[in-house]
Amino acid sequence: MNKTLSKDGTAIAFKKTGTGPSVILVDGAFCSSNFGPMPKLAPVLEKYFTVITYDRRARGESGDTKPYDVQREIEDIEALIDVAGGSAHLFSISSGAILAIHAAASGLKISKLALFEPPFVGDREGRRPANAESMLKTMIAEKRRGDAVNFYLRKVMGLPAIITWILRLTPNWPKMKANANSLPYDAYICGDFNIPKQQVSSLTMPTLVIASTKSPAMLRNAAHAVAELLPNGTQISLDGKIHDVPPEILGPVLQKFYNNRSEI
Fold this sequence. Notes:
Blueprint: E1 2-5, E2 11-17, E3 22-26, H1 38-45, E4 50-54, H2 70-84, E5 88-93, H3 95-105, E6 110-116, H4 132-141, H5 145-156, H6 161-168, H7 172-178, H8 183-190, H9 197-201, E7 207-212, H10 217-229, E8 233-238, H11 247-258
């Protein structure tokens, strides 16, 4: 992988493939340039765009400089925009979509923004610990990566215990543990899971908010609520799985959106 330096000196590892206008892919929790939805989406998009996938800080081959602040991750995206030539489109998923909103609101040169299910689901049942970030930091410091993954899935994301039990039996579990160091950062980014209305309303670039038809109602409702706040936003639902849409369905929609085609 190639590397670029963020403003604080942290090395950010990235891959750059394809030709054409640049699209930066921003991962959610657990994922990296080699794991998750982006490695499958990149080959679809690189037929039309220069695609930049990267390891968010504390993941994969990227470095990590403490103390953490979301501004540092915004600067990571800024460094990748410089790699792209000074401006870029963004596609982002889950907690990465919240990060992308922060980045766009900070004034980075983002031409078009696509958000997949930013998890603004609130905490109506009071199940998400207010000190989730510090609890995750403690688990990571004690080298309890498996516990951190389980805690994030159960207490931060609110998944049922059966899901985490099944995940432990899959090849994905070791990959999720490998990126557990970054889970406190995602907890920080997600905060109280409420929409930062003023920030979202300040985004003027064309923005596409995507939801999967198979996702829980709270995620689909969150996507709709974000789109309603955007001055130049569109919301669509695509056939997919829970919190996921296959690249063969998602890719053509993004291609039309980024290329100014009206039939989205």
